[in-house]
């Protein structure tokens, strides 16, 4: 386990140094995870990619083994700028720049915010199951109220239905049980704080100004950020590539890690030939 003090939080992270390739050091891919999950969602993707690329992964504040950090008045709230600043600080601490930032859901919004505030850190973006704006003010406030009052377990069933395909949501599937445990064991303050960050963020104007290569990826059965929403993000970003992963929902890195890793490899290959 590795930890770094970034501002007011201790962030749990891992850094696999980029191997050397024919032109020097291979690119580094930075992974940012979704609401209610931790960096373990990338395990199978990283097992494939770390052979050829550098990797950074971390638990955002309020998730996994990272600190929750200071929160606003109840209900707890974080700002997207908090998450963006954490990632920028972590990359500075690790001396990583010009990286490929791969973010899923809120991680994809963190990636967009990082590009806006620290373009020196960003060579390209992989925006997975995310958008320029996710959800409505009313929907996020309702979720914050429900989780604050009754805990994450009270809404876990509906979240898991959006996260995974019916085939994966088999009670006999131990991976599904593990994913449910990961979700419901997320600290309530960290979960609702990040809900507030999502509620208050709109990157519609930013998306049209992104000037690095972008690939938008979505699971075909995603119930949280459906393909048409992710497509709307791709349409806003000049020259963005759009890919749909079949037989996957909101977390294709868990359901179809092989396909997801292949898409990233192909995207990086395109970067290196242009």
- What is the CATH T-level topology? Rossmann fold
Shape: globular
Number of DSSP helices?
A: 11
* Beta-strand proportion: 15-25%
Order of helices and strands: EEEEEHEHEHEHHHHHEHEHH
The whole-number mean of residue pLDDT values reads 95
Rg on CA atoms, Å? 17 Å
C-alpha end-to-end distance: 37 Å
Low-pLDDT segments:
none
Strand order of the largest sheet: 1-2-6-5-7-8-9-10
Corresponding CATH superfamily? Alpha/Beta hydrolase fold, catalytic domain
Structural classification: alpha/beta
Q: What's the level 1 CATH class?
A: Alpha Beta
Please count the beta strands (DSSP E, at least 2 residues each).
10
Count of structural domains: 1
Helix content: 40-55%
Q: Any guess at the CATH architecture?
A: 3-Layer(aba) Sandwich
**Main sheet properties:** 8 strands, mixed
């Amino acid at each position: 386990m590795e930890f770094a003090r970034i501002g007011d939080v201790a962030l749990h992270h891992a850094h696999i140094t980029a191997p050397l390739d024919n032109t020097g050091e291979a690119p580094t891919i930075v992974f940012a995870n979704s609401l209610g999950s931790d960096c373990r969602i990338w395990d199978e993707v990283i097992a494939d990619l770390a052979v050829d690329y550098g990797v950074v992964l971390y638990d955002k504040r309020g998730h996994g083994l990272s600190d929750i950090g200071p929160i606003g008045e109840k209900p707890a709230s974080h700002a997207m700028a908090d998450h963006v600043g954490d990632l920028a600080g972590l990359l500075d601490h690790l001396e990583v720049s010009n990286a490929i930032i791969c973010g899923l859901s809120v991680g994809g919004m963190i990636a967009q915010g990082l590009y806006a505030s620290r373009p020196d850190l960003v060579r390209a973006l992989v925006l997975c199951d995310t958008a320029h704006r996710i959800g409505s003010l009313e929907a996020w406030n309702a979720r914050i109220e429900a989780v604050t009052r009754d805990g994450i377990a009270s809404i876990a069933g509906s979240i898991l239905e959006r996260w995974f395909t019916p085939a994966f949501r088999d009670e006999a599937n131990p991976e599904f049980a593990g994913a449910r445990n990961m979700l419901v064991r997320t600290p309530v303050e960290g979960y609702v704080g990040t809900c507030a960050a999502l509620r208050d963020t709109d990157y519609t104007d930013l998306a049209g100004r992104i000037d690095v290569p972008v690939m938008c990826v979505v699971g075909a059965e995603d119930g949280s950020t459906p393909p048409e929403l992710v497509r709307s993000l791709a349409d806003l970003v000049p020259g963005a590539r759009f890919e749909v992963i079949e037989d996957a929902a909101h977390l294709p890195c868990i359901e179809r890690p092989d396909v997801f890793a292949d898409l990233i490899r192909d995207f990086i290959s395109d970067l290196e030939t242009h």
